[in-house]
Design goal:
Number of strands: 0
Shape: globular
CATH topology of the domain at 50-96: Methane Monooxygenase Hydroxylase, Chain G, domain 1
Oligomer: single chain
Number of helices: 5
Order of helices and strands: HHHHH
Structural class: mainly alpha
CATH architecture of the domain at 50-96: Up-down Bundle
Largest sheet: none
């Protein structure tokens, strides 16, 4: 593997000279070494997409004959986005049989 741009050549050469790469054999050592990176707390989840993911999961479960699982996934979607029309329509379809 070789770099395609001249500016990358210097960076590529520096990578070869790295000799002190820490090796973590125990999870505690890794956690303590990286604890500064997580001091601010976990990143918040995005405010979009979760309800969509539950809707797609519900569709797939329904396609595979799991109406109970599909309903559960739709309930999660509607908890996240109560006005989600597609989820409401699919829930009505499941409820009607």
């Amino acid at each position: 593997m070789s770099p395609s741009r001249p500016a990358d050549s210097a960076n590529f050469a520096k990578l070869g000279s790295c000799k002190s790469v820490p090796k973590f054999t125990k999870p505690d050592a890794f956690i303590s070494a990286t604890s500064g990176a997580t001091a601010a707390g976990p990143e918040p989840l995005p405010g979009w997409g979760a309800a969509d993911a539950y809707l797609y999961l519900a569709r797939d479960l329904l396609d595979h004959g799991d109406a109970v699982g599909a309903r559960d996934a739709l309930e999660h979607a509607l908890l996240l986005a109560p006005d989600y029309a597609q989820a409401r329509r699919l829930m009505a379809k499941i409820a009607s049989g």
